[in-house]
Structures are given as C-alpha cells and as structure tokens.
Specification:
four-stranded mixed sheet; 53% strand; 0% helix; four-stranded antiparallel sheet; 18 strands; mainly beta
Length: 196
C-alpha cells in the first residue's frame, strides 16, 4: 500500500498450508511476524490491494489440491485475522491478481482446466460478481500487475511455459495482446511503478 507489504499463507510441505500473515514496514524496515492470521491455510491464491485494504482470492482448499471460491479481506492499518468477504463465481487456484482503487481482478487461473476468464470483486461489496471479461490467452501462472487502468499479464503456462503476454481494460473487460517476453516462463512475479 506504499508503506506496508504483506505476505500471507503458502505451503510448508505438500498440502500443509500456512495461516500466518507477515508484514514488512518500509518506513523502518521492520518485519512483523504476528501481523495477522488467515481464516484458513491457503496457497496458490491471488492478492489484490486498493492501498487501504487487501484481498486474498481463491487458492487451494486446506490439505487438498482442490480450488476454492473464497475471498477474504484485511486492513493494512490493523492487520489481525482477515475476514470472509464473499466468493468469486468459480473456484480457482494459481490465481493472478491486479487491482485499482475500487476493484480487485483475477485474470487467468486454473479451475477444472486452464482459464481465460477475468473476474472482478469489489472492495466495498462482497456479493459474487459475474465474469467480467476474457483474456486473449488461456494460461495461468504469469506475472500480473496494473497501473489502475489496465491489468497486464506476462508469460505463464498453457500445457507448457509460454512467452505470451496480454492485457485487459479495467473499465470494460476488453483484452488484447502486448507481445511476448524473451523467455518461456511461468510462476513469474509482477510489479508496477510510476516510471515509464
């Protein structure tokens, strides 16, 4: 959110998942290992933020390889146990997230198969949202980021790692290709900044 970075969940080994939430404060470079707790252990979820609140979307059900629909929300200011905040329309894991000031988006994930679907979830309304749009490429595990107007997904995996990259408009859900990265890759990370 500009001053605090939060890490949540993850896998200890196999299907044993963490519930810990840890934070890093950029002002004094301190780590808080008791920042908060997920309502259930999770891995493979997507995370989104509007600068004040964060949401954890989808992922694996605790102890299994099954995808879940769960959305949970937390406050950057207070931390603590995050709260259930509705569901996405379809259970999804290996989720890629991006966001603007009002809405979190997931674009591409693994459901019962690899997905092109874009789903939106409001930071202020926990009702289940309909499908928002569709990405160009059917893949998951790419690096996703946004500038508040478009979401960008770079590389990922269909049946094998890809170089394909695409983007979507956060206003109307339309998508388009943006070229290819240099190397085939998946499970990449995404980040954005103000520099051109």
């Amino acid at each position: 959110n500009g001053s605090k970075i939060v890490s949540a969940g993850g896998s200890i080994s196999g299907f044993t998942f963490q519930t810990h939430m840890n934070s890093f404060n950029s002002a004094d470079e301190s780590v808080d290992n008791s920042y908060g707790t997920l309502t259930a252990g999770n891995r493979g979820a997507g995370s989104v933020s509007n600068g004040t609140e964060g949401m954890i979307i989808g992922g694996f059900a605790q102890g299994t390889s099954n995808p879940i629909k769960t959305v949970s929300k937390f406050s950057f200011a207070s931390g603590g146990t995050n709260t259930g905040f509705g569901e996405i329309a379809e259970a999804s894991k290996w989720v890629e997230g991006s966001s603007n000031d009002t809405t979190g988006f997931i674009a591409g994930a693994y459901k019962s198969a690899i997905s092109q679907d874009i789903f939106a979830h409001s930071f202020s309304d926990n009702s289940t949202q309909a499908k928002f749009g569709q990405m160009v490429w059917s893949q998951y595990g790419g690096g996703e980021s946004s500038n508040g107007e478009i979401g960008v997904r770079m590389a990922g995996r269909d049946s094998t790692p890809t170089r394909n990259s695409d983007a979507f408009n956060m206003t109307d859900g339309s998508s388009y290709t943006i070229g290819s990265v240099a190397d085939h890759r998946w499970y990449a990370a995404g980040a954005s900044g103000s520099s051109t």
